Amino acid sequence: MKRALFVRRAAGLIGAAGLSLLSGCLDVPHPFRDPGREGRSLALNPPPSRLAVPAPSAALLGDAAAGEWSRDVVAALLEQSVPAVAQPARKGDWWLRLGAVSRGGQVVPTYSVITPAGVVRSTDEGMGVPAATWAAGDPAMLKAAAGQAAPGIAGALTGIQADQMDHDPHSLKHRAARIFFAGVAGAPGDGDVALARAFAASLRDAEDAVQNVPRDADFSVACKVTVTDGPPGTTGHPQQHLQLVWRVVDAAGKEAGAATQLHDIDAHALDGHWGDVAVAAAQEAAGGVRQVVARYSGRDNVPLPPPVVAHAQR
């Protein structure tokens, strides 16, 4: 009876507060981030790892203010995990064309993503600013305009990456992710083996393939289990803190994300057979790892529609 009660409590934990995704490791990918050697080898036409943002020549600003706006946009894009750089566009660069148009007594800033072939891939507009304020090139106003526009630009880049993946037969939009599972370590009792078996069985589906060798894997997953003594529970019985961290890294060894499960258990309740507890924990962990892989790879992102072909002047 005591064992069955624990199994139900453990399952309840995992469905409630037991699983947390480390959001700091789940930033949305963009096409201008360097995917590493393995990622580049899978792409048919990989973009460069930076987005050039030249100072605009036709933005209704003086030269000094135009340069400051370019730098502000770069800073705002870096906050969105887009490795932008304030410099003129060079041959082979993707770049962001800054501009501005007069409309009804206001100036509307514009942002166009340009391909290396000079095609306008996307265009976004910022909020209108009184013409006199814009012409004065107020630093606070330029910084605010850049910050307001950055999320939309980053979203467009995500859509561009998704479109590239859609047209790449080798991308994770068209095949299952190859995941090397390095196993579980640190669990008491038979937890290392029971969790590993249950996790491998739970993760396999049409989108994720588990393999036991690291060669050619898109991602690697390993779980570390930690058990520490805690204070007595409400009934006075000794307690332990159980933590499972499922860490996901990409093919280049960069952190892709992690799923963490936490629970307080009766002391030494898992020193023997894990049974259904391992199955419940592994199923929930598999869902978390699947989310990490999907968000990091961008396989679930919506492609940006094809552009109306127009060539940009540098």
In short:
This is Lipoprotein. It comes from Gluconacetobacter johannae. By secondary structure, the protein is α/β, with parallel strands linked by helices.
Amino- and carboxy-terminal Cα gap:
75 Å
Spans of at least 5 consecutive residues with low confidence: 1-48
Number of helices: 7
Please state the CA-atom Rg, rounded to the nearest Å. 25 Å
CATH topology of the largest domain: Double Stranded RNA Binding Domain
Q: Class of the largest domain in CATH? A: Alpha Beta
Average pLDDT rating: 82
The helical percent reads: 25-40%
Order of helices and strands: HEHEHEEEEEHHEHEEEEH
The tally of beta strands, per DSSP, is: 12
| Structural class by sheet pairing and helices | alpha/beta
Overall morphology? elongated
Number of spatially distinct domains: 2
The largest sheet, given as strand count, sense and whether it forms a barrel, is: 6 strands, mixed
Protein name: Lipoprotein
Organism: Gluconacetobacter johannae
